[in-house]
Design brief:
four-stranded parallel β-sheet; 138 residues
Length: 138
């Protein structure tokens, strides 16, 4: 019984994957965890994760978001739980950049991963304000 419970808990894991796991997938992980209330969201990169580790995590994940371009998608093991979030190569170079947040929010809403009580515009404004504050600090 304990084993079945542990297996159910692990299957709730969500992976967000990009090239290095620092900008695109990290931003999506923040949105999913902090704004939409998902638990067990892990951001990682294909260049910074051993293939064996990636395969193991993907086997345990309920949902996998590959955030990037077609070239990145070709480096991910095939799985029916993979959702391709086509935002292209990393041109933002910083997590939570307002235009990246907007692109990810747009994708989530258009693919049914949003929350019905969710105020998208309030979150976009909060992300933009946080980004501008971080830029002012240098």
């Amino acid at each position: 019984m304990v084993e079945a419970k542990r297996r159910r808990m692990v299957k709730s894991m969500i992976l967000t994957i990009c090239q290095r796991g620092n900008v695109r997938s990290a931003t999506l992980a923040v949105i999913l965890k902090d704004w939409l209330g998902y638990k067990d969201v892990i951001a990682l990169g294909v260049e910074t994760t051993m293939p064996e580790t990636l395969a193991m995590l993907m086997g345990q994940a309920m949902t996998v978001f590959v955030v990037g371009d077609e070239g990145l998608l070709s480096r991910i093991p095939h799985s029916t739980s993979v959702h391709f979030v086509d935002v292209g190569v990393d041109k933002w170079l910083q997590p939570m950049h307002p235009s990246l947040v907007s692109a990810l929010l747009f994708w989530l809403v258009n693919h049914g991963f949003d929350n019905p009580s969710w105020d998208v515009f309030a979150y976009e404004k909060a992300a933009r304000d946080a980004f501008l504050t971080s830029m002012e600090r240098g």
